[in-house]
Amino acid sequence: MKIANKTFSRVIGIGVLITLTIILTACGAKKSSKTAGSAQTLRLAAAAQLNTIDISTSSGYGQTGNVYESFYRLGKNGKPTAGLAKATKVSADGKTYTFTLRNAKWSNGDPIVAQDFVYSWRRTINPATKSEYAYLFEGIRNAKAISEGKLAPDQLGISAPDQKTVVVTLERPISYFKVLMAYPLFAPQNQKVVEKYGKKYATNSKYMVYSGPFKISGWKGTNNSWQFVKNNEYWDAKKVKLQTISYKVVSDPQTSLDLYQNNQLDLSKLSQEQVANYENDKEYIQYPYSYVSFLSYNFASTDANKQKILTNRDARLAISLALDRKQLTKKVLGNGSLVPTGFVSTDLAKDPQTGKDFSAAQKTANTLDYNTKLAKTKWKAAQTATGIHNVTLTILAGNDNGDDPSTGIVVQYLKGQLEKVLPGLSIKIRAVPTQVANSERRQGKFDIALTGWGADFNDPISFLMIPEKGTDYNYGKYDNAEYNALLAKANGTDANNSEKRWQDMAQASQLLSQDQGVTPLYQSVYSFLQKDNVKGIIHNTAGTQWNYKYAYIN
Predict the structure, then answer these.
(1) pTM of this prediction?
(2) CA distance 360 to 116
(3) Would you say 31 and 40 are in contact if contact means Cβ atoms under 8 Å apart?
(4) Do strands 96-101 and 85-90 pair parallel, antiparallel, or not at all (unpaired)?
(5) 54 neighbors 209 (Cβ within 8 angstroms)
(6) Is residue 38 pLDDT above 70, yes or no?
(7) What would the pLDDT profile of 176-185 be if each residue is shown by its tens digit?
(8) Are 153 and 146 contacting, i.e. CB atoms less than 8 angstroms apart?
(9) 253/251 Cα distance (integer angstroms)
């Protein structure tokens, strides 16, 4: 659940914790649908250099499912499929998972054993490692206390009774635990290799071993090109058709366009300007992502007048109702972005009983609609209740040269629209480097922040936990007792009842919309040109977005 895309690293998103990316990226056009490389080589562009291959310290995992595998791997529609576990047994109370490992090997030929999981998890959650994702271990016995330095890592609820058995003990049932176990963060690490290379470990592709269908080659820490090469020691290597995935850093859209046209790239991410020109092309394809850009309010503002406005529900509803999200996505952005129905992204999770998407369950009337008449009414009510008829609020947005170029046009749209619809409201824009914006949000130095969230796994709770009281990313200090209680039920008493849990989360998301604890703006959809002989890519909106295990060149 990073506020940023989930890849090895990444540059996508607006506002906070936006890190580097190795997401399939290249802004381009099309020429021929045939590739010019070797028969089974997929040629991709990376938006930035690969900054780490250490799963314990990584800032994203969008691609790493292709070189690191856990008990499961993420298949189509966010469903966990076969990984390093050949069998799983779950206790009746949902608190104990027993995984039986298959006969698998590391890329260097070493057997993958149960202790490799124990070692990896303890290494990651150790506070000294400073993992950005340590919080995802919460719910596993003693994980939170360990990450806070109150207990030793060997107290974590994971053990290896023998070489083929891993037992994980939870503090409470976690209904999405199998999906979580497909995340590369929870993959094993080879202790012998870590200790052999010491400080060199993971600083070069040769100082690493791999458990997934591919291994990394040619990465030296700072270079602009590298490869994923088929891992012949992988337990299911016979299913892997690609011999090589070749990456090249391409940061300029025109350069990427040229490479695609000259058959040197197989996928090319379209820039905002290019979408309109190529959306009817036969090679045009969209890949949605569970990244929702939204407005975060500072409920703990130190300015008395601003706090009165920001903590007034009618004022927040007025802001939401004054925004035309269809115009924002279609005309202002023009890049295929989706209009959200609530805080949880579309195509993330489906009702276990009906199969309907969560986006339908959370939809709430008169919250995200464009309704200037109702917006004015709500704003007037807020002015009357607070006694504040004129107020200036600043929108904080992180925007480096490498960030999403949409940031600038979005904040200008927000300023123009809000000042036009809501009399007495003035909007200032504070566009600063992303790192500065991140710091100011963490310190509570903002009125409204333009930011975003991308789910790490396919479950609504990945979004809904963000505005919960006490969570690390609730920088605006939103606190709604009823909302907190619904999430407590979903994670507690109803955790083992999939339908009740679903209803808890749907009610929580509806309540969040009614309260406008955050104001969702749009969901990112990335548009590509993809050669028509590239087949078998599995894309997911969350977690390990890109799965190339079954990809091939036709």
Answers:
(1) 0.84
(2) 41
(3) no
(4) antiparallel
(5) no
(6) no
(7) 999 999 999 9
(8) yes
(9) 7
